[in-house]
Structure formats: C-alpha cells, structure tokens
Amino acid sequence: MKFITVRESHYVADLVVLKSRLESEGIVCRYKNELTAQVLNYIPSFLVELQVPEEDVPRVREILIETGELQTENTQLVCPKCGSEKVKMKLSILKKILLFFSVLYALGTNVPMDKLFKRAKYYCRDCGEEVIN
C-alpha cells in the first residue's frame, strides 16, 4: 500500500484535528517524521507529514474542500477592483526593520516563518487598491 502526503506541519498538534476527521470517515492515516520533528523541532526543515493511502486521496480532497482547508480555485491573490495578479506585500520602512529583526528572532528559535506574515497587508501594483488576503 502506497501512502501519499496530504498535509505537512512543523508541529504534530496542527495535524491532529484533520487526522481525527479523516479517521472518523474510515480513512487510515499515519504520521511520517513525527518523532524526528519532536526531537529536532528547532530545525525548520523537519516537517511532520500526514499520510493516507493512495486510493483514498480523492475522498480526502473532498473532505479538505468541505472543511475549507483546500481551495479549488487559483490560490494567487487577485485585485478585486481591476483583476490584476500583480499583488505585492505592503511594507513601510518601520515594518521592514521589524520584519528583519523578526526573521533573526525566528531563526534563533523554533518559530515557523509562516506566522510572521499572517497579518500582512497587500496592494495592487496596477491600481493601488488594498487587497484583503
């Protein structure tokens, strides 16, 4: 039986709810690299992988779409006003400095880098409209 990775995370706790949901639907799940990520969690390249059998992947995809964890459309940001895909992150000089020190802090600790950009604002380069992520 071949297993396919459907979700990755730095922490097992991020995958527990999805694993529980999939198991309640009768889908066999397993973690890959669970212990390695727990012991070496300060190294950002180690990710815990949630895997399911290859024949269950279409059903897992349906469940991920139902729960909103998977989008069926293009995930690239698009300006709602002009439809342009030239959307960039909006950063002032102060925010760039804070970002620099946050990255240094994150490299020295086990904070995942994706958490640094959760509240970032974006704007369209063509029309200047602010884009909500």
Polypeptide structure, described:
- There is one protein chain.
- By secondary structure, the chain is α+β, with helices and mostly antiparallel strands.
- The strands form two sheets. The protein has a three-stranded antiparallel beta sheet.
- The longest helix is centred in the C-terminal third of the chain and has 16 residues.
Tell me the structural class: alpha+beta
Strand content of the residues, in percent?
A: 15-25%
Largest sheet: 3 strands, antiparallel
Shape: flat
- Count the DSSP helices: 4
Roughly what is the average pLDDT, rounded to an integer?
Answer: 77
Quick structural summary:
With 133 residues, the chain is α+β, with helices and mostly antiparallel strands.
Defining key terms:
single chain; 133 residues; alpha+beta; three-stranded antiparallel sheet; 4 helices; 32% helix; 20% strand; flat
How do the helices and strands line up, and which of them pair or pack?
Blueprint: E1 3-9, H1 16-24, E2 30-32, H2 34-39, E3 48-53, H3 57-67, E4 87-90, H4 93-108, E5 121-124, E6 130-131
Antiparallel strand pairs: 1-3, 2-3, 4-5, 5-6
